[in-house]
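INTERNAL AUDIT FORM
Audit reference: QA-55
Scope: verify that the stored structure record matches its stored sequence.
Auditor: D.O.
Record contents follow.
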Amino acid sequence: MPRAAGDPPTAAGSAATSSTGGCSTWRRRGAGSRRGGRALLPQAGALRGGLIMVCDKPQNPERREVMAKKVLVVHGSPRVNGNSAQLADAFTRGAEDAGHEVTRIEVGRADIRGCLACEYCFSHEGACCQQDAMQEFYPLLREADVIVWATPLYCYNYPAQLRAFQDRMFCGIAKPFGVKQTGLLLCFEDKDETRAEPLLDVYRVNTAYCGQESIGEVVVKAVYEVGAIAGNPGLQEAYDLGASLA
């Protein structure tokens, strides 16, 4: 089946990195790391193939007190510093400038298995029995007020890694997450914007099913090579979406 992709994967074994965007300091969450006296991860140990990045950019205390939200940017591309990563960077700058706390996770290279449909979570207060990278990500989902999906288009849908992440959110039915808003940052190679409609339908149906408010969608077509999105108006749209978050 053909793939309409904004971000094709790199060769296996490449090291996962993340661009810094507008942050003064990005820190990788790991064992022993602390922020404001609070452990950044609920358990010790290195991440299992994924990255959790926290921005330490100084923020306006007054704005944080009034409107600050915890925003979780879920980046689904396996490609390092590709076009969807730059969309995520732009959104992050806008959200931080508006006074919000942003955490970004890289699921495109994380060890995430599919849901087993075992319903273990229904008898264990929403806990999942599988021990993989999702155990690092679940606490972030529990804390988040807003989730923003940053993704390329693969086979007219989300990449498989991001789909696995979403399927594993099934335990949120057993014990609901507190996410109230969601947004979408999407890029792809094809010049025909209708190619994105299947993914947009999935995003909108899931948002409605979860009773969440969509803060908006940024869709950028005709970008493929790394850096092709540079100068694209979609980057400003992504920044504006983050800056308008309320």
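Auditor finding: record pair retrieved intact. The radius of gyration is 17 Å.
Action required: none
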